Amino acid sequence: MLGARAIDAEALRLMAAGNVEGMALAVIEEGRIVHVAAYGRRNVERNLPLTTDTVMYGASLTKTAFAYMLLQLVDEGRLNLDASVAELLPRPLPEYDEFKDLAGDERWRALTPRILLTHTSGFLNFRWIDTDKKLRFYYDPGTRYGYSGEGFYILQLVLEQGLGLDVGKEMQVRVFDRFGMTRTSMSWRPDFAANFADGYGLDGAMSPHDERSRASAAGSMDTSIADQARLWAGIIRGDGLSAASRAELVRPQFPITSAHQFPTLMTETDPRNAEIGLSAGLAVVTFRDTTGPAWFKGGHNDWTGNMVIGLESKKRCLVLLANDVRAERIYPELARIILGDTKMPWTWEYNF
């Protein structure tokens, strides 16, 4: 493994070449945090530095943290991954106003937590992408992979309406407090205002940090790189889960054949997926690396680029957060420098 100074030098070199304004990383070896660093600026206009405690947008890394909490409920016997949402909710799903579009289509009864966590729901990523902004099935649940935040809205409804839980509070106690994540929350906190990152798009334009007022399992987590290091070290060790549930998180559960992750309904396939066993785990994507089982999870919007890669054999993990989406362009090389050559499917993830 490269030493901390060498990692920092390479990160700064790649950032300069890629015009990346702000980025942070954490390296985990044998389940232990060995390096945490932040580079560049959290706000260019005010020349404010990005630090390891700067609050950054977690984006869809939230989904895996949420899945980890959900698996604790499975361990406690409070949730069955293969139960229909018809059994888990006190009322039929279309009777909830936000899912009334599904009225008349009984396929909603086929939805289960496992199907929703593996992104095989049959929905678009978000309904607002569609021309009429209505939620509908594009294929039968459980028949193909198609990334969808809508599925996590349903999972959140199951926990809130079916189990009577407050998702924000459960995440705080079961995940963030467990791992000592003092700068992380599912909604905006006033104390974040002293040190938070604004975002930067492909054109370098700034977008102010979104102060999310309510918890969303699909992606509302605010966090810091120091906290994400603690989270993913805990996840790769399996802290707080039974051995069976930890194994289920990263077990290949459904093969992924699409040439790219987005657009989610594309029909083009790529034979290289089968060569590495590209598959859906529970809120992660799994693959066969040269070292053995591996997985990853990205988090993205127009101003955010996050990526976590986990190699199971030696409990190795690389965590990358950026408040500049241009960082995604340098992640393949940075990951190669830190982790060595892997089978990480960058083309599928980023369309490179």
Question: What are its keywords?
Answer:
single chain, 352 residues, alpha+beta, Beta-lactamase, globular
List strands and helices in order, with pairings.
Elements (H helix, E strand, L loop, with lengths): L3 H15 L3 E8 L2 E12 L4 E2 L6 E2 L3 H15 L9 H4 L24 H5 L32 H13 L4 H10 L22 E2 L5 E2 L14 E2 L1 H13 L5 H7 L4 E2 L16 H4 L3 E2 L4 E5 L2 E10 L2 E8 L4 E7 L8 H9 L6 H5 L2
Antiparallel strand pairs: 1-2, 1-13, 2-3, 4-7, 5-6, 8-9, 9-10, 10-11, 11-12, 12-13
Written account of the structure:
The chain is α+β, with helices and mostly antiparallel strands. It has a single domain (4-79, 163-350), classed as Beta-lactamase. Helix content is 28%, strand content 18%. A hairpin with a 4-residue loop joins β9 and β10. α2 crosses α6.
CATH homologous superfamily (4th level) name: DD-peptidase/beta-lactamase superfamily
Q: Mean pLDDT, as a whole number?
A: 98
Overall spatial form: globular
Show unreliable segments. Answer: none
CATH topology: Beta-lactamase
The secondary-structure class comes to alpha+beta
- Let me know the number of strands: 13
CATH class: Alpha Beta
The helix-strand sequence is: HEEEEHHHHHEEEHHEHEEEEEHH
Largest sheet: 9 strands, antiparallel
What is Rg?
Answer: 19 Å
Overall number of domains: 1
Distance between the termini: 26 Å
Assembly of the depicted chains: single chain
Tell me the strand order in the biggest sheet. Answer: 3-2-1-13-12-11-10-9-8
